[in-house]
Design brief:
The protein has 275 residues and is mainly alpha-helical. It has twelve helices and two strands; from the N terminus they run ββαααααααααααα.
Length: 275
């Protein structure tokens, strides 16, 4: 057993799981993965992306995902390793379309791939013992899209980028949950369609601003002339794997927080030294 002051004791397996989660969550750059694949850096071209188009596409994709998170995530379906493989195949197929048609396909392809990724993230949450019937867990699935961009890196190297991002989202997420706590799923869904859930929409807007950075990295990688359909599929496969990894780390941390308390787990997380 590995002991940590003041009184929390993790099993060896739990400590190893938390260490693995930290390694994932504190080394999140999709840009580096994409650059390694295409053989050239992509950061230089990100500033050339049409920011208005990107903002509209990411907001639309996450609003669609919010509707799904509220209403249609299957809380009873058993998860399996095959389901994540299916999600990867589906996202790779949509990426082939994006790679072939380039930037104009973003508005069509991104909502599709984001929806597929959300369902995969939900499966991962269930595999980590979280109950998808709770709205807090459903919003935590959406929270994953805010993880894993360099925008979250702190100027203080000792500070966790992961916990910094969660702290940024915490107030808005808490307000959104309070706004819906006495509402039925159908009532929430109807209100969203009428644009009457400003706190939920504000939460999604904050997530979208962070998700947009990773999307821009993906978009630049897919727009490289030599990439084409096959490369577009490969980039999208990396894209979903990226967020599946983020979800695995995120819901591992939250599972341990449920067991030992957020403060205790954060303290142990920050004490872990990555090799």
């Amino acid at each position: 057993m590995i002991k940590h002051p003041p009184s929390v004791t993790l099993t060896k397996e739990e400590y190893m799981a938390l260490s693995k989660a930290k390694k994932i969550l504190e080394n999140p750059s999709f840009a580096i993965k994409a650059s390694n694949y295409i053989g050239k850096p992509i950061e230089f071209a990100i500033e050339k992306i049409d920011s208005k188009m990107l903002s509209e596409a990411t907001s639309k994709a996450l609003r669609k995902s919010l509707d799904i998170a509220v209403s249609t995530i299957d809380t009873q379906k058993e998860t399996s390793s095959n389901s994540n493989l299916l999600h990867k195949t589906m996202v790779a197929s949509s990426g082939a379309v994006g790679g072939f048609f380039g930037l104009p396909a973003l508005a069509i392809e991104l909502p599709i791939s984001t929806t597929i990724m959300l369902r995969s993230i939900a499966d991962i949450a269930k595999s980590q013992e979280h109950d998808l019937s709770h709205m807090a867990i459903r919003l935590s699935c959406l929270e994953v899209f805010a993880l894993g961009s360099n925008k979250t890196q702190s100027d203080n190297a000792a500070e966790s980028a992961y916990y910094s991002t969660r702290a940024t989202l915490a107030i808005e997420m808490k307000a959104a949950l309070k706004a819906v706590e006495k509402m039925s799923t159908q009532a929430i869904q109807d209100a969203l369609k009428r644009g009457q859930m400003p706190l939920l929409i504000k939460f999604i807007g904050t997530v979208a601003s962070r998700f947009g950075l990773t999307v821009s990295e993906k978009l630049v990688a897919q727009s490289i002339p030599v990439i084409g359909s096959a490369g577009g599929a490969a980039i999208n496969l990396m894209f979903i794997q990226h967020f599946q990894d983020m979800a695995e780390g995120h819901f591992t941390v939250k599972r341990l927080e449920n067991r030992y308390g957020e403060e205790a787990v954060e303290k142990i997380y920050n004490e872990i030294i990555l090799l």
